[in-house]
Design a protein that fits this description.
The complex is a heterodimer of chains A (259) and B (280).
Chain A lengths: L4 H15 L7 H7 L2 H12 L2 H15 L18 H11 L3 H38 L9 H34 L2 H13 L1 H12 L6 H12 L5 H18 L13
Helix pairs in contact in A: 1-3, 1-7, 3-4, 3-5, 4-9, 5-6, 5-7, 6-7
Chain B lengths: L2 H10 L1 H17 L8 H15 L4 H10 L12 H14 L7 H39 L6 H28 L2 H7 L1 H26 L7 E4 L2 E4 H9 L3 H15 L5 H17 L5
Antiparallel strand pairs in B: 1-2
Helix pairs in contact in B: 2-3, 3-4, 5-6, 5-7, 6-7, 6-9
Classes of the chains: A mainly alpha (259), B mainly alpha (280).
Amino acid sequence: MQITVIQAVLLGLACFLVSTSLFPLGWLSQNIMSKPLISCAIIGIIMGDVATALKIGVVIQAAYIGQMSIGGVATLPNINTSLWFALPMTMVAGGDAAYCLTMCLAFAALHTFLNTLATIVKIGFMHKFDDMIEKGKIGKYWMFPATSHIWTFCYAMVFVTGFCLVGTDAITTLVGMIPEWLNKATNVFTSLLPAIGFMMLMVTMIKNNFQWLYFLLGFYLVAGLSWNTIGVTVLACVVAYLIYQFTPSTLATVEEDDD
Amino acid sequence: MSNVERLNALKQDKKFINKAFWAYNWAIPSCFTKERMLGTSVVMMMARVADDIYPGDVEKQKELCRNHEVFFNTQQGLGAVIYGAALGMEVERAHNDTITNELIQAIKQALAGPLAGLGDSLIQALLTPIIISIGMSLSAETGSIMGPIFMFVAYTAMNAALSYGLFVAGFKGGVGAAEFLVGPEVKTRIVPAMESLGIMVIGAVLAGIMKVKTALVATAGETVVNIQTDVLDKVFPNVLTLVVCAVVFYLFKEKKWSATKIMLWMIPVAIIGYFTKILG
């Protein structure tokens, strides 16, 4: 398996579209399109192997499920761009989620630096467009986002398309050199990974320790009684409705005094 | 048709509402800057509809946009009610002098904080992870495309209903629409119920996709006891996953470790665990 030139260009274009956050429905789909599992699905379609891409994608998504744009919560490095070249290379080389994640994290520092640069440039453009309003060209304000998208386009083309074309052979050789014991140890490592994302989520969700009982109930229904997720979701909705029903309403009620 | 009649007609004009809503929708992802956060997206929405509110009056249009060139930040989904209310008040202001720019800005800023808090805890930290969890459980092991499709459709439908509904409610009903959202009813009744739902589903999904096992075997004479299948699974299936999660949670919550630090520490733990057969 090799990454063809057409695939590399398609990956770059798809990365650009997803990175603008406009594709396909603007704000309505913005937060979900930035999730690793969706990116992995698109990469899988371009590479022609959805199943492998998603098996790796689920592990990465599990590690990143607690990743939110809320201040104060522990966060992981941003992998939204690096995933687009790391996953195709991993698939070609036959590696697993641990290799893909290692490649992504190695690139994260450079990504953060380039992103900061981009935001500074963007603020400069914002003031330019404020001047346009002063000149009465109000319709032109609509062009403001285009300025940052030009940057995103170059970025995606250089890093995603470029890396895919240049780096694949090196990565394949590297993965081939990895000894057997390390391969098995990384399997253990990937089995531990979901704990990070899910526990990050629990830190924000658990407000009092008795709420762990809900967690244990859901866990046991699947692990012990082999329910599927849909069944647990239905039961969880029932529990949520009961809690809602049995919590006294705070809406102002007219007190009737019979005595 | 007089000016007042024209502006009142705008309040009922579906085409005008949709135009403003889509402007809001396209502006949010592309206009986020560190200096004004979402402020620029409000300007962009106003710039889009300026000609409808003040037809042909460039000076008034300029003023309308200039007034919104300020810092503004909230959670964008529940915040749709603020965009709607701000637009509704701007339409009023075009013919009613008692509504000042200061009033509009004050209301915008007053609602932004509480709605950001509620939106982050309800949508970002609860509904979105539930949807992602279910999507992941559909794709885990089989690698089926249904997971990502479910995630996209469920999230987009929920977000569209919420954003559009609140935008229109804010535009037509003004600030009153937001009062229910930031009131105590949502905080004391709806949020705890949603939390229990989220925690339960996430526990279920975790049990499905994370399976930490031990390779330890105890031999006593002739009998070989597999610790995982013969001992642990009989007590509580998948109990090692819970142990690992408890340790990670403790490190996050009590020790304040960063996620990256925990991830780096997992590498030696995995290698040592593999060689000692404690993990496998």
